[in-house]
Write a structure and sequence with these properties.
Elements: H1 3-9, E1 13-17, H2 23-31, E2 36-40, H3 44-51, H4 62-70, E3 74-77, E4 88-91, H5 106-115, E5 124-127, H6 135-145, E6 156-159, E7 178-182, H7 185-196, E8 202-205, H8 208-239, H9 243-250, H10 274-284, H11 290-316, E9 325-329, H12 344-354, E10 358-362, H13 388-391, E11 396-399, H14 408-414, E12 418-420, E13 435-437
Parallel strand pairs: 1-2, 1-4, 2-3, 4-5, 5-6, 7-8, 9-10, 9-11, 11-12, 12-13
Antiparallel strand pairs: 6-7
């Protein structure tokens, strides 16, 4: 039976590999439309949570998982030998950078090595992890062909970049158009059938390389423009001009301008990382992507700039960073989510600690810091309680992420001095000299 037929009669069985911020929502998109999904993950705690009907991601309700389990449409396992049970295997694993800012494909390659021995004829393999153009051709195809399969006949291989934006109420899951590129025309048609089962709008492209490049362009566009406005913020600050007011004025132009906003540094698993995938691959072709790399340098320097402003604010109050009690307000990398991947808050905490500050954090979305590869020193640190006695005990509050749950009126009433990196307090009355922008 073809993928088109299986999609139409809902007999299509999906395998989602990697049950994080991309994989789990995708799995639930299929189950909510009546398709059976088996989730694969090396993290047994995630698998056990799903089997018990519990969510481990804040914006995904446990009720959705319980419903999928009750309907018999969601299973989860750490056993990759069960791969033959499904018709399509969709890989949603991390693609971080290594210590030298070069692509770390260990999760992708590890996944491929785990499933390749279990592939069977008639399956589709889709890679969704953001990566450099050519990854599908260079890493996926050789491993599939080594099993003796003819791609486009025995096995179908596609690339379809994830486009999740956690916490965005306007664009969620399958409401976002889905780009799909196939290794062969037959692969593309199979991919369109698999993703067309739940995505109303599919965007087919001519190759996996085009699909891979399209995701990088989307994120590099943001990274470069954020780098531009971050640099303009530093210039404006030096001139005594409020960059936020400048942006508000500029965005009244109804054409030719898209507002981007400065911040304390980039976070999340896409914008700080993806540009370096292209710069790394471009070197293979003898190209130096100066524009992209410059934006990356600016964005990566923002935590140092914020720390310099913190130092200045404390000095103006005859205090040093060393020995000061500083509260980081907002640990997540963006507002209203519990996702702390690549959060600039960690870099700020590291820098301030290295200068001798006593660091705490407050984030209602992250009650305790879970293990991370780069910032293990903070593992297990709990969020402070939100009360007047606690907040007044800090020498400075550094507002890094502007969550809607924050009570800004209480913050201004209780905090001695605040450094605001998000212009969050622009409409909140404060005492003279209490709030400083960075």
């Amino acid at each position: 039976m073809s993928f088109v037929q299986k999609s139409a009669d809902k007999s299509l069985r999906l395998g989602i590999i990697g049950l994080g911020y991309v994989g789990l929502p995708l799995a639930l998109s299929y189950t909510s439309n009546g398709y059976h999904v088996t989730g694969f993950d090396i993290d047994a705690s995630k698998v056990n949570s799903l089997l018990e009907g519990n969510s481990y991601i804040e914006h995904i309700p446990s009720a959705s998982i319980k419903q999928a389990r009750q309907d018999g449409l969601l299973d989860a396992t750490t056993d990759f030998s069960r791969a033959p049970e499904v018709d399509a295997l969709i890989i949603c694993v991390p693609t971080p950078l290594d210590l030298h800012h070069e692509p770390d494909l260990s999760y992708v390659i590890g996944t491929l090595e785990s499933i390749v021995a279990h592939l069977r004829a008639g399956q589709l393999v889709s890679l969704e992890s953001t990566t450099y153009p050519g990854t599908t051709t260079e890493e996926v195809l050789p491993r599939v062909r080594a099993r003796g399969f003819v791609v486009g006949e025995d096995i179908h291989v596609v690339f379809s970049p994830e486009r999740e934006d956690p916490g965005n109420p306007h664009f969620q899951g399958t409401s976002i158009p889905k780009v799909v590129g196939g290794t062969t025309p037959a692969c593309l048609q199979a991919g369109l059938a698999v993703y067309g089962a739940v995505y109303p709008k599919i965007v087919p492209v001519s190759s996996t390389e085009v699909a891979e490049f399209s995701k990088l362009l989307e994120n590099i566009y943001r990274a470069v423009n954020i780098g531009l406005v971050n640099e303009m913020k530093m210039v404006a600050d030096r001139m005594g001009i409020d960059i936020w007011e400048v942006i508000e004025a500029a965005k009244t132009k109804p054409f030719g301008f898209t507002p981007f906003y400065p911040g304390p540094g980039l976070g999340g698993h896409c914008i700080p990382i993806d540009p370096f995938y292209l710069t790394w691959k471009a070197r293979e072709f003898g190209l130096h992507t100066r524009f992209i790399e410059l934006a990356g340098e600016i964005n990566e320097s923002m935590p140092e700039y914020v720390v310099s402003r913190v130092t200045q604010v404390l000095n103006d109050r005859t205090k040093s960073v060393r020995g000061s009690r500083i509260l980081i307000m907002g640990l997540a990398y963006k507002a209203n989510v519990d996702d702390m991947r690549e959060s600039p808050s960690f870099r700020l905490m590291d820098l301030l600690k290295s200068l001798g500050a006593d660091i705490s954090y407050y984030d209602p979305h992250i009650p305790v810091i879970l293990p991370t590869r780069e910032h293990a020193v903070w593992t297990g640190l709990p969020s402070v309680s939100w009360d007047q006695a606690t907040i007044t005990g800090f020498d400075l509050v550094l507002l890094v992420t502007h969550h809607a749950k924050f009570n800004l009126d209480e913050l201004v009433a209780w905090a001695e001095v605040i450094v605001d990196t998000r212009n969050a307090l622009v409409a909140t009355p404060a005492r003279a000299g209490q709030v400083h922008k960075a």
